[in-house]
Design goal:
mainly alpha, two-stranded antiparallel ribbon, Four Helix Bundle (Hemerythrin (Met), subunit A)
Length: 168
């Protein structure tokens, strides 16, 4: 039995985006219960040269929709990354889940061999074959940002555990 590119991507992104939504909901409740300014969590960083929680979530969503959309040959929705609240981040996660869930699995057929070009025509241009793009670039990048969001919240006292990270 072979594993389709759709099965290796969209369900994984959906699971972890659902987890990310849950993490954000718990963080929002944590801030409200303890009378913490939500911006303290939304702007939290593990180290000064790292992106804040807001950006980690935005980038995770960008990878989920970008990887899925490129593999499906779909036009990618454009985000302006203007989210500033937990509610706005959760809405971004929901829009991302809706976009990737709406991609027909048949559109992924053959994408393991499809060329994917990132930043075409620039000095940062990168070329991948679809399977390498998903397995060696897209998924690791996505997991890095979801994991960093989890770590930021956990480090700042939000009561989270592995079950929260894994989602359902």
């Amino acid at each position: 039995m072979t594993l389709s590119m759709h099965a290796a991507s969209v369900p994984v992104f959906r699971q972890m985006l659902g987890s990310l939504d849950n993490l954000l909901a718990k963080a929002e409740s944590h801030a409200a219960e303890r009378k913490i300014d939500p911006a303290a969590l939304l702007q939290a960083r593990l180290f000064p040269d790292m992106f804040a929680l807001l950006k980690q979530v935005q980038i995770a969503c960008d990878f989920a929709k970008g990887v899925s959309g490129r593999l499906a040959g779909a036009e990618l929705p454009v985000s302006d990354d203007s989210e500033q609240t937990f509610a706005e981040l959760r809405a971004l996660v929901a829009k991302t889940i809706a976009f990737i869930s709406g991609l027909d699995a048949a559109r992924f057929d053959g994408s393991e061999d499809r060329e994917v070009v990132l930043r075409p025509g620039t000095p940062k241009e990168r070329r991948f074959v679809g399977q390498a793009y998903l397995l060696h670039y897209g998924l690791p990048q996505f997991f890095f940002h979801v994991t960093t969001a989890y770590a930021l919240l956990r480090h700042n006292g939000v009561e989270l555990g592995k079950k929260d990270y894994m989602g359902s």
